[in-house]
Amino acid sequence: MTAVGKPPVEPRLQPTPLAKGLTTSPDATQADSQPIRIAVDRLALTRRAHRILREHFVRAAVRVSVLLAGDALALLLLRALLRGVRDYAWLGEGMSSIAFQIIPKGAVPLVQLLPAILLGLIALDTYGASDRRRDASRLVAGATLGLALPFWGHLWSNFTPLALPGFILLAALIGTTLIAERHVIDHIVRKLWPIGPGAVRALLIGRPADAARALEHPGLADAREFTFGGVLDPDELGLKNRGGFRRLCQTIKRYRADTLVLSGPLDDDALGLLIEAAGAAGCQLYALPRVFALGGVEAQVVWRRGAPLMALSRPGLRARQLILKRTLDIAASGLGLLLLSPIFLLIALAVRISGPGPILFRQERVGLGGKTFRIAKFRSMVHDAESKRSDLAERSLYTDLRLFKVKDDPRVTRVGAFLRRTSLDELPQLWNVFVGDMSLVGPRPPLPAEVDLYEEHHYTRFDVKPGMTGPWQVNGRNLITDFEEVVRLETDYIREWTIWKDLGLLLKTIPAVLYMRGAS
Hints:
Helix content: 40-55%
Distance between the termini: 50 Å
Shape: flat
Largest sheet: 4 strands, parallel
Number of strands: 10
Radius of gyration: 29 Å
Number of helices: 17
Strand content: 5-15%
């Protein structure tokens, strides 16, 4: 048993009258007494299991109570704000009149609305210990489900052309409020309790290499949720026989652990002993998926004829998600091209005046499935900039040849410098989005020469269409210089995609562009 971060050593157990006999040569007396010692150790764990289970229950009760209280308070504040706009004309008589038509009095009575929405959130499992409590799509779906319960009768008995839009608007407002409230709660918890008083006391079970990788797992990195008392090597513990089971029981008891985390493979016998010990002690048992370290592969349990199978697949969007994402891309890019056309003309005129060369710069990039396409941008450099790129390789902000960006690039024109700082040079990519080469949100499309240097797991970037903006840009653009970190951000985005995540990244892009974070 070792402290986290230190090399594992042989676990030392406190000698007891029952344990001393195990260090002597095996004889008939020892063989007869070993089942008794194991039974005593298991009995000791079973006695403390009730206390551990109570601790798990208390943690869950505190979490659910805080979230319920936060949700109820957020909904009450939203209702007060809507009543102020509608009944007291806080935003003017015009807005008050619109609010009356969309959400008439009595449409969603508080006595019915509040418990209905909370029940909807409970049904969508947004109060559990997993990340579902932060999942924007689940929060919106729970709010919509809860709102539909009291609103349904009003919709049928008082239907107007604005009734359905009013329902959609109100559901969106409630969902947005809940998302913001959950983020506020997380922020407060991070500030007040950098190490959570309710964090589980865990033991990490795994061989040194597996344990080292496990400690970098994002699911275990939050000290408010997991505190590790130590790392236990199953080989040194001897977790292949009942003697190893006894030592594991004593170790759980000594470290007062209430959670066990398995970080590597075990044979069936050893895993059975681990499950038995965890059950006897009332401990939660987690196992990290073996595919965690393979990069770009995700595991999902599927059931076939009542038996579980583990499906391993590269992360990517499914058919329904692709249709929804493409619909958003067409609608937003088409609207953008229409509304921004005057700005396009002004920028085109400025680029033409800035110097010789075409208004649009076109370049071959690699997109979905490794297919190449020509990206369009407003020209921000001198007309022969590409021929001078190799001369500036040593000045790149990145040491990795798979990324390239030069600060104070001498090839950039004065107009181009402004366009690049404000990201206005990328507006023509709305056309790439409209015709289907790109998406509004996704990984940035690389050059073919950069792709030639990729390793196998980097090709995850091509499982979706490249985007005008994405997790890399929102998290600092040129401030993130580690290519592996870029790929991790993009892989997480693909794996956890929802339409709400795209909308969130688009909203986050606005301040990133306005404040020019990471721009050069």
